[in-house]
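4.2 Preliminary Data

To establish feasibility before requesting continued support, the project team ran the inverse folding procedure on a target of 334 residues. The structure was first converted into the token representation described in Section 3, and no sequence information of any kind was made available to the design step. The complete token record follows.
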């Protein structure tokens, strides 16, 4: 007989963070930089743990050039050629500590990734979108692997060599997994449960997908995420791939899922290596330079930390108490 798990599972929209007494006087006192030592590779990393998703449109070299100025991280999408990587490395050596090279689990993907890592040895991170036992080969690199939503899979991936596990099935802004397959897990609960499993093994997690505003990013960190990966929130900017489109006097940019029809057509022949689920293609308003969005997110996060009394972002989850709510914000003028 099918089993029904009746435990309550929540999304970002179902909760708010409870303010707490705080001795912090100003947002400027909050330190968002974190230092990590990874369990398997033993490498360390310092930065603000927000990651641009390895999607065609947002995971670009142009994005990485801006992100790294803020010590933020970019998972570069897997469609750049080796020569493009070499050029980027020559022009922007300062970015290399803050980027990952991405790969699926297909042979040609892995071969290309190996050649990039050989040509650009300053890159220390690899982002594997489909995790497998082959990871032994890359043990000196920090590996981001996923995606999963349950504690036992987090443990399995960490024990098989991954350092950081991507958590999220179905929450993404251009993801149709939940409607196509009926599979998913509310993101806040997934993060709380997976963080607990990972941290028990000294592993780390990324909350991947589902953040719609800076408050959601704060909730993901509050829930225990070590890193938060964002796609949609970084879409539509100058640094994103693609041209600005004009329609009815409005400026727009294309944003699409990694397994959308747009992505499949663009990278014909690569279809089998994508995640099985499908994705959407949307036109999002053109938002100008990503710098403004970065400052908006970081300003929001600093403010969250002052509300709950966390002097450092790393302390946020220890200071976090979530309250269940029926309404997020006042919508009278929206
Ligand atoms: P967002 O921040 O836009 O809500 O979510 C970004 C995440 O959505 C990505 O990091 C990736 O895990 C996921 N994603 C991107 N494209 C697709 C897709 O086409 N299908 C599915 N199922 N997930 C996607």
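Position-by-position output of the design step:
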């Amino acid at each position: 007989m099918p089993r029904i798990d009746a435990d309550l599972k929540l999304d970002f929209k179902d909760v708010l963070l409870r303010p707490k007494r705080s001795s912090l006087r100003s947002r400027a006192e909050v330190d968002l930089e974190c230092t990590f030592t990874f369990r398997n590779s033993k490498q360390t990393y310092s930065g603000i743990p927000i990651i641009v998703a390895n999607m065609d449109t947002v995971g670009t070299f142009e994005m990485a050039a801006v992100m790294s100025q803020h010590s933020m991280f970019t998972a570069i999408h897997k469609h750049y050629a080796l020569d493009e990587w070499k050029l980027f490395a020559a022009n922007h050596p300062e970015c290399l500590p803050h980027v990952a090279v991405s790969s699926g689990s297909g042979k040609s993907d892995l071969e290309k990734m190996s050649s990039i890592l050989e040509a650009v040895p300053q890159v220390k991170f690899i982002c594997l979108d489909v995790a497998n036992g082959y990871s032994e080969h890359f043990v000196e690199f920090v590996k981001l692997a996923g995606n999963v939503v349950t504690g036992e899979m987090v443990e399995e991936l960490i024990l098989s060599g991954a350092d950081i596990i991507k958590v999220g099935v179905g929450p993404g802004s251009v993801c149709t997994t939940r409607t196509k397959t009926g599979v998913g897990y509310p993101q806040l609960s997934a993060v709380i449960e997976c963080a607990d499993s990972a941290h028990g093994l000294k592993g780390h997690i990324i909350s991947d997908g589902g953040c719609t505003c800076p408050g959601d990013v704060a909730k993901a960190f509050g829930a225990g995420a070590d890193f938060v990966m964002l796609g949609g929130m970084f879409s539509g900017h100058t640094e994103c791939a693609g041209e600005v489109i004009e329609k009815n006097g409005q400026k727009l940019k294309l944003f699409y899922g990694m397994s959308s029809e747009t992505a499949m057509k663009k990278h014909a022949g690569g279809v089998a290596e994508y995640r099985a689920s499908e994705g959407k293609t949307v036109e999002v308003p053109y938002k100008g330079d990503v710098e403004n969005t970065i400052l908006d997110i970081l300003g929001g996060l600093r403010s969250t930390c002052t509300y709950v009394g966390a002097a450092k972002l790393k302390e946020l989850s220890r200071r976090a108490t979530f309250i269940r709510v029926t309404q997020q914000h006042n919508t009278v003028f929206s």
